[in-house]
Amino acid sequence: IAGITQAPTSQILAAGRRMTLRCTQDMRHNAMYWYRQDLGLGLRLIHYSNTAGTTGKGEVPDGYSVSRANTDDFPLTLASAVPSQTSVYFCASSEERDQPQHFGDGTRLSIL
Amino acid sequence: QKEVEQDPGPLSVPEGAIVSLNCTYSNSAFQYFMWYRQYSRKGPELLMYTYSSGNKEDGRFTAQVDKSSKYISLFIRDSQPSDSATYLCAMSASGGYNKLIFGAGTRLAVHP
Question: Do A42 and B102 touch (CB under 8 A)?
Fold first, then answer.
């Protein structure tokens, strides 16, 4: 079934550790996005990529980095995790940057 | 003040009822409007998207945009227990459906 695969589905991590959240899509979508979802705040955009080889900052980019080496993969890295990064992280993609976005099922991350 | 406001609920209705879900917004530049449905521990699922003002219907769902009042609505007719989920509105100002600003979501419970 075509779609977005995120891994891991959940993770508990010690503060200060480095963590990479993986996102792969098989729809050949050009645009990809990372969001975090926190209770009462809704989804907030962390980083985005309009096409392979390009990335941009969203609303809450601090403490996160991304890369887009190819069309299918868009990993999100926390270089040194802090407890405030405890959240549910969603990856999304769209055919082009101006098209509606489709989401994966998320990674639940707890930083202790 | 948040750019997009959404009553968190929960909204509890009997099966078969007509449900009205609403969002208000403050940025008059928003032109692209979307509704997502999110089941527990799943990613948001795109329901409907509209550009500018007016109504759009898809099966039991109708999306309505009133730009003069900065107000959007999602109506669900003949609601079913399977409609029980959190409903998220999202909107963006220009360049299509990217750089989305999300509401925090309204939790809906449809009881048999």
Answer: yes
Query: How far from B98 is each of A78, A94, B45, CA to CA, in Å?
Result: 23, 9, 16
Q: Which residues of B touch A54 (CB under 8 A)?
A: none
Q: What is the dihedral of CA A101, B88, A76, A69, to 10 degrees?
A: 0
Assess A77–B contact: CB distance below 8 Å, yes or no: no
B4:A96 CB<8 A: no
Tens digit of each residue's pLDDT (9 = 90 or more) over A14-47: 999 999 999 999 999 999 999 999 988 889 999 9
Q: Can you tell me the distance from the alpha carbon of B10 to that of A93, in angstroms, rounded to the nearest whole number? A: 29
What lies within 8 Å, CB to CB, of B69 at 6+ separation is none
* Chain B interface, best mutation among A37, A93, A95, by max B CB count within 10 A: A37
- In angstroms, the CA A34 to CA A92 distance is 6
Residues 6+ apart with CB under 8 A from A101: A31, A33, A92, A93, A94, B46, B97, B98, B100
Looking at the complex, does the CB of residue B8 fall below 8 Å from at least one CB of chain A? yes
Segment-wise mean pLDDT, segments of 10 residues, chain B, 112 residues: 89 97 95 95 94 90 94 97 97 79 95 95
Q: Do A89 and A107 form a contact (C-beta atoms < 8 A)?
A: yes
Q: Are A93 and A33 in contact (CB under 8 A)?
A: yes
